[in-house]
Amino acid sequence: MKSLPYFCRGEVVRGFGRGSKELGIPTANFSEEVVDSFPSDISTGIYYGWACVGNGDVHKMVASIGWNPYYKNVKKSVETHIIHTFAGDFYGEILSIIIVGYIRPEKNFSSLDALIAAIQDDIEEAKKKLDLPEHQKLKEDNFFHTTTVTNIANGH
């Protein structure tokens, strides 16, 4: 995956409404246009990195890129779970993320509980990996301190 780290920015749009309600794990979703702009060498799967809403603080995150086999999505999505508790939703805000590394491929699960357990494991894995010095430096990247929406792809 030559495209990592991958820098991405876009408006938070309404997703499927499952993250918070069914999973207890809220996610921020990018529009189809942003999803379609991802490089082809970023395969589907679960990733970790850094995220910032608007001009707020930078937090650890995990992101699911793909079709979410458990839910049998027909459209590819990028769903970011920011490892932080927010007071409310932030639809319409600009979400900036840096995808730093890969955790695992997408897979189907036999139950909702198994899916939730896997996501919790992904979150723990992301927390550990993002504590490494080589990943900590990206938390301070200037990308998070510029807010132009036009630079949706790599290269800030």
Structure description:
By secondary structure, the chain is of the alpha+beta class. It has four helices and six strands; from the N terminus they run E-H-E-H-E-E-E-E-H-H. A six-stranded antiparallel β-barrel has the order 1-2-5-4-3-6. The protein is globular and about 40 Å long. The two termini are 18 Å apart.
What structural class do you assign from the helix and strand content?
alpha+beta
Strand proportion: 25-35%
How confident overall, as mean pLDDT?
87
| Unreliable residue runs | 150-156
Q: Please give the alpha-carbon distance between the first and last residues.
A: 18 Å
Helical content band:
10-25%
Query: Can you tell me the overall shape?
Result: globular
SSE series: EHEHEEEEHH
Rg from Cα: 14 Å
Give the strand order of the largest sheet, numbering strands 1, 2, ... along the chain.
1-2-5-4-3-6
Number of strands: 6
Query: How would you characterize the largest beta sheet?
Result: 6 strands, antiparallel, barrel
Number of helices: 4
What is the element layout, followed by pairings?
Layout: E1 6-13, H1 19-23, E2 28-30, H2 32-36, E3 45-53, E4 58-66, E5 77-82, E6 94-104, H3 112-130, H4 133-139
Antiparallel strand pairs: 1-2, 1-6, 2-5, 3-4, 3-6, 4-5
Describe the structure concisely.
This protein is 23% helix and 29% strand. The protein has 156 residues and is an alpha+beta fold.
